[in-house]
Amino acid sequence: MGRKSRAKRERQDAAAERPAENAPRKLRTIVLLATGAVVLVGIVVAIVVALSSGAGSLPSGAQIASAAGTSGPVSLAAAAAAIDFHPTLEPGVGQMEGLPASAAHPPLNKDLLPVGSEAPAFSLKTPTGKTVSLADYRGKAVLLEFFATWCPHCQAEAPHLAQLASSLSPSRYAFVSVNADGEDAASVYAYDRYFKVPYPSLLDPSSRPGSFYQAGGAGAVTSAYRVQDFPTFYIIAPDGRITWRSDQEQPDALLLRELEHAAGK
């Protein structure tokens, strides 16, 4: 075989080998695209199935995260968006917050923990998985709220609490909310995003899980604080003792006064 023929043959052989070398790379690309398509289809199927079998209710965050096969902020955000959180309208809601402190009603629940008693310790997680403990705020006056995402009175309070929290020095004051209805992470995350809550909202797991669309049951921390109505408030002094507590909507002026009292101002 001549030199030119041999060189030509070698070029042909090399060209024939290159597709084979590139095959694994192409295959990986195809697999990744197929996987993405399956995840997307899974999410859509979860939503369609839930809508068709749940009388028009949306799927829970756990259902969507399971269908997507992923966990973490991305899947939580998708699950929260699917909740389609919106305020619950009810006559007479949202009027108490702007009234003077003297307009507040006494608590409906007569079994709340007494003033002067030590606030029960707890450690709970946020919807994104961060652990928050009451002990983290020792040395500060703490407003502790127990709420449910579907509660119109809690929704009315949310923007007022956010504004009050933002107006006070974080070196002396802290705000913490505990979901008192055993709701899933997606529901609480959707609530937080809607109201732009600037402080931690914590999950209190229950044997009867709830969501924005379904009432649940009290978790261990909610039970320890003897919560019966939403919202319920406790104000805790820097030494960990309860200085004030009540339930129902409250005047902003009263919450501020009691926080300042607890802080020793």
Overview of the structural elements:
The chain is an alpha/beta fold and 265 residues long. It has helices spanning 3-53, 61-68, 73-83, 152-167, 185-195, 220-224, 252-263; strands spanning 123-125, 131-133, 141-147, 173-179, 201-202, 232-236, 242-247. A hairpin with a 5-residue loop joins strand 1 and strand 2 (131-133). It folds into two domains: 3-83, no CATH class; 101-263, Glutaredoxin (3-Layer(aba) Sandwich). A five-stranded mixed β-sheet has the order 5-4-3-6-7. Strands 1-2 form a two-stranded antiparallel sheet. Helix 1 (3-53) runs antiparallel to helix 2.
Morphology: globular
How much of the sequence lies in strands comes to 5-15%
- Say what the CATH topology of the largest domain is: Glutaredoxin
What level of helicity do the residues show? 40-55%
Give a brief rundown of this model.
It contains 7 helices and 7 strands, in the order αααβββαβαβαββα. The protein is α/β, with parallel strands linked by helices and 265 residues long. The strands form 2 sheets. The protein has a 5-stranded mixed beta sheet with strand order 5-4-3-6-7.
